[in-house]
Amino acid sequence: MPVSLPAAPPVMSRLPVGTATHCPYCALQCGMHVRPDGITPRDDIPANAGGLCQKGWTAGDLLTSPHRLTTPLLYGNPVGWDEALDFIADRLKSIQAEHGPDGVAVFGGGGLTNEKAYQLGKFARVALRTSQIDYNGRFCMASAAAAGNRAFGMDRGLPFPITDLARADVVLLAGGNVAETMPPFVRHFNRAGQLIVADPRITPTAKLATLHLQLTPGTDLALALGLLHIAIAEGYADKAYLAERVNGFEAVRDSVAAWWPERVERITGVPVARMRDTVQALGTARRAVILTARGAEQHAKGTDTVTAFINLALALGLPGREGSGYGCVTGQGNGQGGREHGQKADQLPGYRHIEDQAARAHVAAVWGVDPADLPGPGRSAYELLDALGTPAGPKALLLFGSNPVVSAPRSGHITARLAALDLLVVSDLVRSETAELATVVLPTTQWAEEAGTLTNLEGRVLLRRQAVAPPSGVRSDLSILAALARRLGHEFPDEPPAVFDELRRATAGGVADYAGITYERIAAETGVFWPCPAEDHPGTPRPFLDRFATPDGRARMVPVEHRPPVEDIDDDYPLYLTTGRVLAHYQSGAQTRRIPALTAAAPEVFVEMHPQLAERIGVAAGDRVRVASRRGSTEAPARLSQAIRPDTVFMPFHWEGVNRLTNPALDPISRMPEFKVCAVRVEGGTP
Ligand SMILES: Nc1nc2c(c(=O)[nH]1)N[C@H]1C(S)=C(S)[C@@H](COP(=O)(O)OP(=O)(O)OC[C@H]3O[C@@H](n4cnc5c(=O)[nH]c(N)nc54)[C@H](O)[C@@H]3O)O[C@H]1N2
Ligand SMILES: Nc1nc2c(c(=O)[nH]1)N[C@H]1C(S)=C(S)[C@@H](COP(=O)(O)OP(=O)(O)OC[C@H]3O[C@@H](n4cnc5c(=O)[nH]c(N)nc54)[C@H](O)[C@@H]3O)O[C@H]1N2
Ligand code: SF4
Ligand SMILES: [Mo]
């Protein structure tokens, strides 16, 4: 049965074209024209080719929002820029004088442009000389990144253009709800092909699927092991490909021998027949793609789970074949570029490792410093937030592009850590929940008010052009960093093209090599795929066609074992809580909860539950219930739905409170928290 796709949107009225730029939100980075009277989609950008979601259509309201910050705030009171910046610099110096360089920490975001992400990493290592920097991408696709590096020697979310999906006969999507999280994505699925979705809920994406695997939360790893077991048993392993391109098949084959389909059914709840249908579809397809997203990745075993799906893809001979492959559906606007240029605790620009001596020497030369002066690796995002204000932890935090009071796991605890700081500086467009706690808030320019590059989920570097003048009183993040650096004795460029030129040099020769990418080329070619080592190099849409990025060019299969969620259900907390997104809101909601059309579409948080469960616990539709975990509790109205398993409740995390419940248990490799499964109880039922 072919995939059923929603009807194409009506043909756009041909309004005068404005500035060609890109959406402020997710990693699809839809192309859009911004005009004074509104937004229209671009049709020259393949990822959206004329489409936008509701958030994109209404993004213009961000530019005129009455909630916009336009003056720095010191202890909540408006002050001038010099006063704010002098205050911050003085406090940074005195805190570092007392506690050493690591007394100050920096936290970034995957929504920041490449230029900002790069500059933030340089600011931390050069101006502050702190090792304490990480960013919210650790909460996003860090597990897929770690697994991709382990298997392929390179983490490029989709190692092929998104338009390749149209040629795949079968797509298996584990833990992604792209119909709500990137609506124009669904137009790339092959209408004549099959879509198989693994999700505990019957989401709008699962409704498009030809086959839905409605697994128990936290069991994707068992599912992937079971699928590989069946694939090998039924003779679908591609022996010629494995011999030519892959190391480690035998050990993985032996490790899945015990993952009998019936055993996997008991753990996942997915019927054996559906697993067999899935394997048969993948195994007999001429071209097939396996994708993972946050549903499978945001677990304390996320890296191993993605590894298990990559093992399946490798056994079937998919990666590195045109029209086939494995990919991670990256999330934030610059989720891909944001993980390449050094705002990660263990990383230098160009996806270089901070402990690699050659990498340190290269980057230090670009920065004009002694390699020995560059700090080593710091704490990962949750561990950094958890250490704030503790005796051994940082006493100050500079935060750019994240709202952890809403979005961090165990957020009640993280809010207390933020409140324990001597100095919290937040650069933001609006007074987010985290900015409410800040000693100093710095109002910054946003997407269409400034230029910069972003790297979309395909690894295509795009140019987000400035379309409007910023309101008076705000400054760009780059100029804020330059002004602070100057006060700390360093000269940093503050214009995006100058920063990008430096980024090109810093990434030259690295895994994520941008040396050959220029603003002019991006504009002329509607984006350039990295790696692109020289201006006459065409860029690399499909990096794995001939070889993988490992030293011997072969992919690595790694045996992995399933284990239950870190916190399983029991008598006290008998239900699984899983969390995720709704169409109308973005992330912590700091931006979208301030847009009237979006709050009208999705006005408040809710807890989705099956009617059988509701009946069992005495809850009627719309009742306010209390949801409690071992870490905290929150209230929300109940929303009854047949689309969820009776043992599981779902809450979107766009509102403060949901993350008070979530479990910060971390993946040992990626340091990803277990956002997608913890144990809760639901009480109440008061109308
Ligand atoms: N509307 C909207 N779109 C967004 C965003 C947004 O906030 N709002 N954010 C962007 C960002 S940063 C990201 S990372 C992406 C995320 O994009 P997705 O990964 O598509 O989004 P999620 O809703 O987090 O999770 C996807 C699905 O995982 C399912 N799930 C939960 N637990 C499990 C599990 O254990 N196993 C499996 N297989 N599935 C499970 C959920 O039911 C959910 O339907 O979206 C991007 N696009
Ligand atoms: N329970 C649960 N929690 C989750 C998730 C989940 O699935 N479940 N998903 C996780 C994921 S995948 C992600 S990516 C995180 C995201 O969560 P956050 O890190 O909180 O991301 P945003 O809400 O996008 O926060 C961005 C903030 O920066 C501001 N901002 C936007 N652009 C700029 C800019 O250019 N400069 C500056 N200085 N500020 C800017 C915005 O106004 C906003 O306040 O949440 C994670 N938390
Ligand atoms: S799908 Fe993502 S990039 Fe496209 S309009 Fe919606 S939020 Fe923007
Ligand atoms: Mo994300």
Give the neighbour order of strands across the main sheet.
5-4-18-17-16-6-7
What do we call the CATH topology of the largest domain?
Rossmann fold
CATH architecture of the largest domain: 3-Layer(aba) Sandwich
The overall pLDDT, averaged over residues, is 96
Q: How many individual β-strands?
A: 30
Helix content: 25-40%
In this entry the ligands are:
ligand MGD, iron/sulfur cluster, molybdenum atom
**Estimated radius of gyration:** 24 Å
Beta-strand residue fraction: 15-25%
Overall structural domain count: 4
Number of helices: 23
Structure notes:
- With 687 residues, the chain is of the alpha/beta class.
- It folds into four domains: 10-64, ADC-like domains (N-terminal domain of TfIIb), CATH 2.20.25.90; 73-140 and 334-529, Rossmann fold (3-Layer(aba) Sandwich); 158-329, 3-Layer(aba) Sandwich (Dimethylsulfoxide Reductase, domain 2), CATH 3.40.228.10; 575-686, Barwin-like endoglucanases (Beta Barrel), CATH 2.40.40.20.
- It is 30% helix and 18% strand.
- The chain is built from 23 helices and 30 strands.
- Strand 6 (104-108), helix 4 (114-128) and strand 7 (133-135) form a beta-alpha-beta unit.
- Helix 3 (81-99) crosses helix 19, helix 4 (114-128) packs across helix 20 (496-507) and helix 8 (220-233) runs antiparallel to helix 11.
- The protein starts with 18 loop residues before the first strand and ends with a strand.
- Residues 1-15 have low confidence and may be disordered.
- Bound molecules: ligand MGD (2 copies), iron/sulfur cluster and molybdenum atom.
- Molybdenum atom binds at residues 140, 331-332.
- Iron/sulfur cluster (SF4) binds next to helix 1.
